Amino acid sequence: MEETVLIAGLGLIGGSLALNIKEIENVHIIGYDANKSTLDYSMMNGIVDETYEDFSQAVRRADICILAAPVSITVDLIYQLDQIDLEKELLVSDVGSVKSQIMKAAEDLTSDKITFIGGHPMAGSHKRGIQAAKAHLFENAIYVLSPTKKSTSAQLEKLKALLSPTKCKFLVLDSEEHDEMTSVISHFPHLIASSLVHQARNWQTKHPYIPKLAAGGFRDITRIASSNPLMWRDIFFQNKEKMSHLLSDWIEEMQQLKTMIDTGEKQQIQLYLEQAKDYRDGLDSKKKGAMLSYYDVYVDIFDQPGALLKVVEILAEHDISINNIEILEIREGITGVLRLSFQNKNDQQLSHAILKKNKYETMIEE
Ligand SMILES: NC(=O)c1ccc[n+]([C@@H]2O[C@H](COP(=O)([O-])OP(=O)(O)OC[C@H]3O[C@@H](n4cnc5c(N)ncnc54)[C@H](O)[C@@H]3O)[C@@H](O)[C@H]2O)c1
Ligand SMILES: O=C(O)C(=O)C[C@]1(C(=O)O)C=C[C@@H](O)C=C1
């Protein structure tokens, strides 16, 4: 029997989910978004089968609904759901980066037809909007699911089955532990990235040449500062207490570092850096599995037209598919570094050998 899945909020995440759910047979995908041109784009590009400009009408059609709007709007949409006169059962999930207020709204639902299970794919990008949607966005990422008191294990399995084309790994967490962990590993780092950009910008009045010196290091650590400010404002305030707590800890730690620098405690600083390096290196360790990572090959390329294409073509000729390509650093007329990510060690080793044979300077981390 065909099931109708509604995605409400067809941006980067909603659009990417739609592209995955499309792969399932007997699913009719309908889209709702506040932005008419987003709806038009998603129809024109076959991302959804049908669109609605009215939330209630779309909801009445659906068997499953995924709310993929910014977090505070998701809370509003949950309260709106409760006002809709439903004819059939509705399983609802969301993708919000902060869970507590969303889960509170979900637990407040009074409709006996609605069951809610919170969701959050731990993958994304600094890009926004339906144009940035990608089917492979969630591959190998953790997808957090937060059941409510009312939801059953059968409904949890049903949601997992719907999301299975994303190739995510599911992890069940309650909203409190989710929000604490994501504040540390996602939300607070974002604030720090933006603060580093501000620092550089302030120094630019004295040294106008500063942006030209921004090489791989600054670009790597500040990439996420290019994300959607409205979305992040929403996240920070929905997780306000945890952000404030982390800021206090951070300020205290920076004070300690300042003392170490001012008083010349070289050993202490070295230890601080060594401990950070050990932990960071461990994150990418395939053996430990602390974070799901790809198998990377670093390739030096020259800044010439077609240089990137050539590398891709060589690997394609050997039927090797690349999971992700990132240009880590490239300056006009000089060499740059490509990071090619592969799904498994075999593809990584093979690509390394093939590119070497083709006279490329390549490197892999063992
Ligand atoms: N960007 C990421 O890296 C990321 C990762 C995981 C989860 N999330 C979460 O996913 C959600 C969406 O983020 P995104 O990155 O896709 O943002 P986005 O800006 O790309 O998309 C948001 C979409 O919601 C629509 N929208 C806004 N107000 C609406 C309303 N009232 N009704 C219906 N639609 C509305 C917008 O028009 C837009 O199409 C957020 O809750 C965010 O916390 C984001
Ligand atoms: O890769 C990025 O650009 C992201 O910021 C993705 C990211 C994160 O890793 O913090 C951002 C917000 C989400 O809720 C989940 C993932």
UniProtKB/TrEMBL annotation:
EC top class, as a word: oxidoreductase
EC number per UniProt: 1.3.1.12
GO biological process, alphabetically ordered: tyrosine biosynthetic process
InterPro entries the record matches: 6-PGluconate_DH-like_C_sf (IPR008927), ACT-like_dom_sf (IPR045865), ACT_dom (IPR002912), NAD(P)-bd_dom_sf (IPR036291), PDH_C (IPR046825), PDH_N (IPR046826), Preph/Arog_dehydrog (IPR050812), Prephen_DH (IPR003099)
Keywords: Amino-acid biosynthesis, Aromatic amino acid biosynthesis, NAD, Oxidoreductase, Tyrosine biosynthesis
NADP as UniProt keyword: no
Domain of life: Bacteria
Pathways per UniProt: Amino-acid biosynthesis; L-tyrosine biosynthesis; (4-hydroxyphenyl)pyruvate from prephenate (NAD(+) route): step 1/1
GO molecular function: NAD+ binding; prephenate dehydrogenase (NAD+) activity; prephenate dehydrogenase (NADP+) activity
Residues in Prephenate/arogenate dehydrogenase domain copies: 3-291
Annotated catalysed reactions: prephenate + NAD(+) = 3-(4-hydroxyphenyl)pyruvate + CO2 + NADH
Signal peptide: none
ACT domain segment(s): 296-366
Assigned protein family: Belongs to the prephenate/arogenate dehydrogenase family.
Protein name: Prephenate dehydrogenase
